[in-house]
Design a protein that fits this description.
The chain is an alpha+beta fold. The chain has 2 domains: about 130 residues, no CATH class; about 45 residues, no CATH class. About 45% of the residues lie in helices and about 15% in strands. The protein is built from 8 helices and 3 strands. A 3-stranded antiparallel β-sheet has the order 1-3-2, with no helix packed on it. Strand 2 and strand 3 form a beta hairpin. Helix 3 packs antiparallel against helix 8 and helix 4 packs across helix 7. The relative contact order is 0.11.
């Protein structure tokens, strides 16, 4: 049983749950952590008598997921763990007891996943979990129409209209909008 720190008590008293906390709570609930851990453990370094003890597989997985979800470098994940209580709780780091895993440790973990093609196997596990729940995941396209500041659609070299550009009225101002298609991703 883990003893609650003063920081945890202070953090629990705050009134508003942030979007990041909601997202992390949802990911904590739906990601098949046990299945992913079982995939990686046979290839993960075991603890020895000499040197630093390896960080737990699930903790490293959680750091790796944070890196992917928030597009962070190895160093930025390490810094984010020191900066954000929500991220520390998600990963399971208590700074009063231990330091956050460093960027080099995450780099080595990421290389292990790449070397053994474990990310593809993790994705297959996600598909299996969805299939067990009667859900289907397919490749698709997510479309987001965003208003952007852009010159009029005839201000180009050919003096022709860009077919992806449209005008829309917001309030009393005319604005240019452009449809942006992005590939839908799991994370």
């Amino acid at each position: 049983m883990k003893q609650t720190s003063f920081a945890d008590v202070e953090f629990a008293k705050k009134k508003r749950v942030t979007r990041r906390e909601k997202f992390l709570g949802e990911m904590d609930r739906i990601v098949p952590w046990a299945r992913w851990t079982a995939l990686i453990e046979p290839l993960y370094p075991k603890s020895g008598r000499v040197g630093r003890q390896p960080i737990g597989v699930e903790r490293m997985l959680r750091m790796y997921c944070l890196q992917q979800w928030f597009s962070l470098s190895d160093e930025a994940v390490e810094d984010a763990l020191y900066d954000s209580q929500a991220l520390r709780q998600f990963v399971g780091v208590d700074l009063s007891q231990e330091s956050a895993p460093d960027a080099t440790t995450l780099l080595k973990f990421r290389r292990l996943l790449e070397k053994h093609a474990l990310t593809a196997a993790m994705f297959d596990e996600v598909k299996a979990v969805l299939s067990e729940r009667g859900l289907l995941m397919r490749e698709g396209t997510m479309v987001d129409a965003t208003l952007i500041a852009a010159p009029s659609s005839t201000k180009n070299k050919g003096k022709s209209r860009d077919p992806e550009m449209h005008q829309t009225k917001k309030g009393n101002e005319w604005r240019v909008s452009r449809t942006q298609a992005e590939s839908a991703m799991l994370y």
